Amino acid sequence: MTAGLFLMVLGAAVLHAAWNAMVKVNADRLVLMAVMMMTHVAVGLMVVPFVAFPTPEAWPLVILPMVKGMRL
């Protein structure tokens, strides 16, 4: 495992732990989660110009988690 990959995994773990800690200690969890989701969308929109559009082969990997996550 390269050092860069290790740091990305470690960073993801730290962000996940911070997310869970903030949700658990905040009195109004719904508002906190809404603010966090809006922040994620804002950061994602800033990254969009710098990444390539997914190839047709990748679309099932993009769509399947969305469909699987829907509660019907």
Protein model, in words:
By secondary structure, the protein is mainly alpha-helical. The chain has one domain. Helices cover 74% and strands 0% of the residues. The chain has 3 helices and no strands. The protein is extended, with a radius of gyration of 16 Å. The protein starts with a helix and ends with a helix. The relative contact order is 0.05. The mean pLDDT is 88.
Task: List key phrases describing it.
72 residues, mainly alpha, 74% helix
Low-confidence stretches: none
- N→C terminal distance: 40 Å
Mean pLDDT across all residues, rounded? Answer: 88
Structural shape: extended
Largest sheet: none
β-strand amount: under 5%
SS class? mainly alpha
How many domain units?
A: 1
Secondary structure tally: strands = 0
| Helix percentage | over 70%
In short:
By secondary structure, the chain is mostly helical. Helices cover 74% and strands 0% of the residues.
Topology of this structure?
Layout: H1 3-25, H2 29-47, H3 59-69
